[in-house]
Amino acid sequence: MLLGMTTGLFQIKNSELPWYVRQPELWLYPAQTLICGALLLYYRRHYTLVPWRGLGLALVFAVVGIAAWVLPAWLREALVAAGHAPQDWWEWLGMKERLEGFDPTIVRDSGAGYACTVLMRFARMTLVVPFVEELFWRGFLMRYLVDPDRDFEKIPFGTHRWRVFWIVTALVVVAHQPADYIGAFIWAALMYALAVRTRSLGACVVMHAAGNLLLGLYVMKTAQWGFW
């Protein structure tokens, strides 16, 4: 989790500097993908995804959650296109311009380098991130908070407590940028509901992977790089 949050520490905005300094995501994302992927494989015997159930619900929640996440930015673009001037309060609702962010087209001229950059970006967000984050948020923290005095592994996955819901959901929200708070709240609430309903870590991973895939395709289509 900490390794996945290090990207901003290396970024220096200066157009005169080399690409690997101006946009460190181009090498940090592949590094994070390979390191975290290797750790997930190494410790694969220590987490359980079964029972595989509720996958249809996971896919429905993924579509609903990502739609809610991108809706404010889409609405902003629609209003601007209709001639409305952006207002300061728009950003409080997540209606923020999302053009600045990880832009893989910076290496488009390199041919295979561009394809590799996009492939590794999608590998990170659809394969590695869903496992890492769901193992932490739902597999560990959600169970640990039920009773901190007990071994969390003895707490059945998907055990519901309203106190746990609000703590985990709030932490997921503040882990994102303010413009994403509404979308992150809806997403985290749906994920919590899925965990409680299915009692399946695998279903949570599938929802996260499907949602990130949809978000990645949306970003590639709209060039709203600020979403990833």
Give a brief outline of the structure.
By secondary structure, the protein is mainly alpha-helical.
- Give the SSE order as H and E letters: HHHHHHH
What's the main sheet like? none
DSSP strand content = under 5%
> What do the pLDDT scores average to?
90
What key attributes describe this structure?
228 residues; single chain; 7 helices; mainly alpha; globular
Describe this structure in words.
The chain is an all-alpha fold. It is built from 7 helices and no strands. Helix 2 packs across helix 4 and helix 5 packs antiparallel against helix 6. The mean pLDDT is 90.
How would you summarize the topology of this molecule?
Elements: H1 19-22, H2 25-42, H3 55-81, H4 112-144, H5 162-174, H6 181-198, H7 201-222
